[in-house]
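User: Good morning. I'm curious how flavin-adenine dinucleotide would be positioned relative to this chain. Could you predict the structure with it bound?
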Amino acid sequence: MKVVVVGAGIIGLSVALNIKETHPDASVVVISEDLPDDSTIRSISLTTTKSGAHFRPFPSRSREDYIASHYPRVTQRRFKQLVKEYPNETSIAFIKGYDYVEKVDQLYSNLSAGYCEEISNFKVIEQDKYPNENVKFGAQYDTFVVNPSTYLAWLWKQLGTKHGIKFIHSTVNSLKEVASKFKGYAIVNATGIGLQYNPTALGEPQYDPKCYPIRGQVLVIKPPARVLDKYMKQTITYQLANGEWCFVIPRVDQQVVILGGTKTIGGTCETFNDDERDKVVGNARTRFPDLFDENGKIELVDYRIGLRPARHGGVRLEREKIEDTDIVHCYGFGGCGIEMSWGAAVKVGVILDNLKGKL
Ligand SMILES: Cc1cc2nc3c(=O)[nH]c(=O)nc-3n(C[C@H](O)[C@H](O)[C@H](O)COP(=O)(O)OP(=O)(O)OC[C@H]3O[C@@H](n4cnc5c(N)ncnc54)[C@H](O)[C@@H]3O)c2cc1C
Ligand SMILES: *[C@@H]1O[C@H](CO)[C@@H](O)[C@H](O)[C@H]1NC(C)=O
Ligand SMILES: *[C@@H]1O[C@H](CO)[C@@H](O)[C@H](O)[C@H]1NC(C)=O
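Assistant: Good morning! Here's the predicted structure, ligand included:
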């Protein structure tokens, strides 16, 4: 099997690792504009290292959502195994998740399809235990978090040292260009939001007009020592009645917390926005008061800005033959690419297996 993976975010590297684990003899090349490490922490064309990152199951709003809800379950199984095998390297941690919805949403209160299947210790929270009077629905469950920088670096190391795959650090202008260089290879397009920055160079109509970015700005917070331990053991998400989000996600390996967050549909601004910081901190003040010190200050140590690679109609995970080349599309993961990563990689593996013999 001969495969070129374009993109070294969590999706591309998971795809590459799954191929090597299932087909050690496969010839796998990864091409990426960004290095999969923190030297590119401000680069807007790599989203993974800017993400939360937790698994937050949610009830499906569409058929596409429901189909995609299978992927994080596959990732969850894999991560349970990785935690056992590599307890210190991957930064994956299984902790408690809490959902609080501050508006009436029957999809939540009905526990609609896609929400609690295969989720351990899922419990609806009783009304008298709601943390504030705006909450209309609450649930708690077991889930996982990961420091995406640590995990991405771990995937990369596995690929390089254990599997000896070839990594090419360069920007691709079109998949056509890749196809002409790598004859007889299948190409996995795992470019996230990336290729969209260069639509004219793609030799249209390759650019997918259904793709769009959802910009997110999150804060890296050092919790006060007295609550640090508590914040390392839980991820909490509030959905506000006005559509805003207020969440905390621990980076267990660095003992800091991601405080979020914004979701700007179509946003592409790469610079830090002070008003957004104030809004996020303001929303946190009443919901996470113990993150603030006696003087009402919160310890902001860093920030992340990333573009969630969203797509109308959801994830695109399918094969297409373009001219003589088999392309496997693997993009459009929006705000769920971390939790869906291994599920997507397994699906790409199945698609490639069906092409076997021809590769
Ligand atoms: C603030 C924020 C919070 C988030 N929280 C969560 C969360 O809690 N849980 C969750 O599951 N998801 C979360 N996400 C979403 C998640 O980060 C993304 O869905 C995921 O990272 C997408 O991964 P990817 O590999 O598809 O894309 P990327 O990580 O962007 O990787 C794309 C790769 O393609 C390369 N590339 C692009 N264009 C080219 C080119 N022309 N030539 C060569 N290489 C190219 C890039 O260099 C990069 O290596 C969050 C995102 C943000 C911004
Ligand atoms: C939730 O359940 C109620 C009662 O069965 C039903 O009437 C309603 O349509 C459901 N709502 C959604 C969004 O599924
Ligand atoms: C590759 O992925 C991008 C999203 O990054 C998409 O716009 C483009 O259409 C895809 N390319 C092809 C040839 O399918």
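The first helix runs from residue 10 to 22. The chain is about 30% helix and 25% strand.
Let me know if you'd like a different ligand tried.
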